Each structure stands twice: as structure tokens, then as C-alpha cells.
Amino acid sequence: MEENPAKDFLSTNKNNMPVNSVKDEGNHSFINILVKAKKLKHNFQERFANLSLPEYTYFIIFSIIIGIAAGLAAVLFHHSIDFFNRLFFEKTAGGLFFLGSAAVIVLPAIGMIIQAVMILIAPETAQKKGVSEVIKSVSLRSGYIPFKTTIFHFIAPVVCIGSGGTVGPEGPAAQIGGGVSSKLVSLFGLSDERIRIFTAAGAGAAIAAIFNTPLGGVFFALEIILLNDFHTPTFSALILSSVTASAISRILLGNQSVFVFNISHTIDYSNLYFYAILGLLSGFFSLLFIRYSNYVRGVFKNKIYSTKLPQWFVMMLVGLLVGISGFYYKEIFGIGYMAINSILANALAWNVVIVILLLKFMLVPLILYSGGFGGLFAPSLFMGACLGYLFSILINSIWGVGIDPATMILVGMGAMLAGVNSIPISAILIIFEMTQNYSFILPLMLAVIVGNMLVQLSLRGSVHIKHLEEEGFSISEGKEVNLLRSIRVGDVTLERIDLIQEDLNLPKLMAKLIESPNSSFYTINNQNKLSGIITESELRPIITEYEILKDVIVARDIANSKITVVQTSDDLDYVMNLFGKLNLDQFPVVNSLKPDEVLGAITRQKVLSIYNRESLKVNLASGFAKELKSLDITVPAKIAEGYSIIERHVPSQFVGKNLAEIRIRNKFGLEVLMIKHHSNLYADKQEMKILTPDPEYKLQSTDTLVLFGADERIENFIKV
Hints:
Elements: H1 5-10, H2 25-49, H3 55-95, H4 107-121, H5 123-127, H6 131-140, H7 147-162, H8 170-186, H9 192-211, H10 214-225, H11 232-253, H12 272-304, H13 311-328, H14 337-344, H15 350-370, H16 377-398, H17 405-421, H18 424-435, H19 441-459, H20 463-470, E1 475-476, E2 479-480, H21 481-485, E3 499-501, H22 506-515, E4 521-524, E5 530-534, H23 536-544, H24 546-549, H25 555-558, E6 566-567, H26 572-582, E7 586-590, E8 598-603, H27 604-628, E9 637-640, E10 643-649, H28 659-662, H29 664-668, E11 671-682, E12 685-691, E13 703-710, H30 711-718
Parallel strand pairs: 3-4, 6-7
Antiparallel strand pairs: 1-2, 4-5, 7-8, 9-10, 10-13, 11-12, 11-13
């Protein structure tokens, strides 16, 4: 009997449950094993929870465990790449002896075909690749990364890089470290917030292990994965896990510097402006690379793969292009660290460096966006080394300033790494820790800052955030702001607020403080308008002088007149930004139509709670997306007594309007879980995209809404 997990979950009618009709003894045995495993897991989680360890002890223990796990995963990843590299370039090339030295041409093509087969087997898992996927998991899914995704993105990059693909291991390593950590901490039944932190810590720890740069790993996680979330517990977890992972890497892989170089001249600080110019050139080249990458991605997505050309064939052609390039310029193959050392040793002619720079620039996006798997850190370092070397030759030959080429090369590497990946602090620390040399730190910082500023001003944000926005996500400070933009303050149940007259004397004020569960009071004047706020910080010094001041001062004398209010028409994204900007945890709410009417207060905790609820709905939608394709579009799918999910074509009166105008939640009491957007690729094929509900998205006639709510509400909507 075929088991249908979708029906097993969706149906609430016991007679329709597929599991009741399973008669095969083997199936029963398998189910019993799963049940027993689940019980063991719950028993383990209960025993662990009963330990009642202090919060900080939890962080120390798990940070170290995650550092060990991510470090071991990164070391295994490193050895796997070496193994596949030998397998392809020694064993496989040897088997193609009849091709002679030209055998290397077909090796990347074989690797690309293997990856294409993997994509064919697991297309949805294959799409979840790169650092952006880790950002989404941390910001939208509380750090949850399916373990099958981790396994897939361990194997695929190993095949790609091992077969000569000219990409880096760092992006996949971050995904592997985050995935291993996510799986590990979920076994202990930790809270969503802890899983989120430790998933980010695992990603940073893997970077620390791959590069052997603990501080670089810490700031990679902070700058990219957590979007500059510098909370103290988070920072502690990142440091401990990254240092532990780096220690594991040094024990198992050695402590030698990846790059071999000799800086023969001391830095002449009167020539610092040359490094600033190199920073500008690196920033411009980074922008050019980003624009070209976006163009290549668009060509593959909208033109090449919108035809009937099979993906394996296209990927094979890209692999052959890499192979032909590598046949003439072997420096192109693989990660490229050996080529960087050759450049540092001045072992390559300047015309060769120009060619391999252009080849790397051209081939990396072709590999990644045709379907290959790998990262951008190593290619960024490679291109930066080439650019720094060529710039040093130019200025030394024209101006005769005698700047050390090795210094220029290393500075160029840092500037390109920062520009292409939007990681200025991480880039400085990674180059510093990889070279174990601080003599060029000032030129490095100058070039990185100048180059990164140029990129940021042009892109108006991180390159990863831009990619996520193109997918329909708008993430700020680790939160998907589209989830909050669709909710108004007026839709939220507000907290009770304590209003007191501003002329209230101190004894009565203290009595109010004792009786009230709130720690803040808002003062109102004779016209019942808000005039100030009294918090614990204002009251604390008054308490020590209570006997002296009790008959002298009133509430007005203590209150802070600088008070920020929000209106019922404001959205929660605006409120959340205010919380971060003003470093407050609560705002009074006034009626938009009657600004003098105070309705209550909204707290940071309330907004976060709403965000988590909305995020859960989005995750639920993603989980149902596959199953909903097979449902009758007119038949509600019950998920609980009295509640259902249904797909409905956009009503004609909604076409051309955005969700903010329609206000489906307010008018119909339904939640829009997702939007299925259909577009015609060619005559016999349609493409369907799953879109996260964006308040500003204008509905189209080909769209389908996936709605969740009470059965009677759905029935009312069907009548529209």
C-alpha cells in the first residue's frame, strides 16, 4: 500500500487515515521503529531539560559542541575535495589515456553531468544552496535546516571542485556547518531562538575551520548570517564555536599559512593613496563581477532554461568550457590557492595573469548559475590577487615608487573579498589571520573600506540581501519585514497602559508603582494628552531620597517629556525599526483618527511573538506547497477541526490591487499563506513560483492565493 503523508496530515477523519489501512507487517514494524525512536528522543530531551543548567552554561557547552562538530565537518569536507580531486585528475584522467594530456578537458564536464543528475534526483533540495539559504533558515525558519539538504550540499560541491570547477569551498562549508549544527541542537529540544543562534554559530565555525581564521568566522556569521546582530549571548556563542572549530582544523590539517609570501619592503605610508586607488579599482571590479553574475543568472533562468534544452547538456557544455580553459591555463582548475601562491612568488608573467583573471571572472558565474555548486570566497581572493599584482606592476613601472608586489596582492585579495561578498570586517580579519602578518594591516583596511563603500553605495545594501529581495524576501536585522508590513498596530491586542496625572504627588506615585505590574507610567496633562514617561531609571534615584522629596516633587518633575508614540495605522515593521533605533521595549499607541486618545501599549516582545507566529505560517505554507499542487482548487483541505487551507484563483476585482489595499485579514479573517504565481514559458509548459505575501505585491490574473482560516470564513470568501 502506498502511504500518503499529505493525506495522513491533512485529514481529520479517522476513517480516512491511510495509516489505518496499512496491513503490511513490514510497514507496521517500520512505524513502530519510528515511534520508539521518537519516544527515545523525547525522553532524552526531558532528561536534558531536567538538568536545569544556567543559561550561560548552556551557551558554553553547546558552543563548544558545535565548534567541534562544525570543525570536523569542515575537515571532512576538505579531505573529500582532495579525494575527489585525486579521483578525477589521477584515476579518471588515467582511464582516458587515449586522450593524452587533453583528458583534463572532459573532467569538469563529467563533474557537471554528475551534479546535473543530482539536481534531477532532488530538484527542490538542489535549489536550497549557498549562503543566502543559511540566512533564510536563520531569519525565517528559526535556524532549521533539513539534514538531507546538508548531505546534498556536502556531496555536490565536492564533485564540482574535485572535478576542476573553478569555484570555492567556503559558501558550501558555511551551509554544511550550519546544517550540522541545526541538526545537532534540535536533538536536544532547544528553543527556536537558541537553534537560530547555534545554526549561525555553526556556519561561522565552518568558515573559521576552512580558512583557519577564528575571528574571520565570528564576523562572517555576524555580518552575513545574522545581519549584524551583536547581542552578547550570540557573540559569545560565535567566538567559542569558531575558536573550537579553528583548533580542530589546526590539529587535523596543520597550522601552516595557506599563502606563502615575502614582504621585502616596509610600508611607506606616504604611498597610502595607492592602496586607496587599489580599493577603488577593486570596488569597481567587484561591482562589474556582481553585475555580470546577475546578467548570467538572468540568461540561464529566463532564456536558456526556458527552452527545452536539458540542464545536463548545458552544464556539460559549461564544464567543457572550463576544461578547455584549464587545458591551456591549469591555474583555473579548482580552488586556486596554488595559483595565488604562484602570483605571490612572481612566478607568472603579467599577460598570463590577465588571461586567468578574465577566465576566472567569466567562468565562475557560468558554473554557479548553470547549476554547479560552490562558493565565491576563493574566486574573490583569486581575482583580487591578480588585480593587486597587475596594479603593482603598473604603478612601479610608470611611477617607479617601489611598492612591494606581495603587499599589493594581499591588499587586493582583501578588497575583492569584501566587495564581492559584502563582508568588510570579515575580509580584513580573514586576510590578517590567513597570512599571520600584520605589517600591511593599515593599507588593507584602507583599501577594503574604500572598495566596500563603493559597492555598498552602488547596490544600496548587501549582495546577499539583494538576492533575497529578488526572491521576494525582505530581511532586516534577521527578520522578514514583509511578514510585519502586512500587520497594522490596530490589528494587535495591546497591553494595558498606566496613565497618571502629571501633578500626582510622590507618595501616590510610589503606591501606583507597587500596585501595578508595569514598570513604566505615562503622564497626562489637564487636557488628557500624553506629556511624559516615567521609567525605573527615573524612579531609582528618587527612591533613595524619598523622605526628603515626598512632599516636594510631583510626577511632572520626574517624567521624561521626550516620548515616542505609534499610531494604529502604523505597520509592525515600522514599530520594530523604532524599537531598534531608540533602544526601547514599549511604545504607547494612539488612535490614528483621534491622536489624543491613548489606547494602550505595544511591546517589543509582542511584535516578536507576532513575527514568530507569522513566520510559522510561512513555514507551514512552504511545507504544504508541494502537496497543494495536487489538491482540487475548489476543495478546502482540513488541517484541524473547523480550520482549513484552500487555493483560490484571484477574484477579478482583486486583480491589479496589492494585498495592503485588499486587507484580506481584516475583511475576511483569513491568512494569505502564499501566492502561486504562474507564467507561461512556452506553449506546453508553465513555470510556477511560490511567493511570500508582500503587502505591495500587485495580484495578477494568473495568481492563486493559498488561504488559511476558519471554515465559515473560507465559505464567505468563496462567494466573492
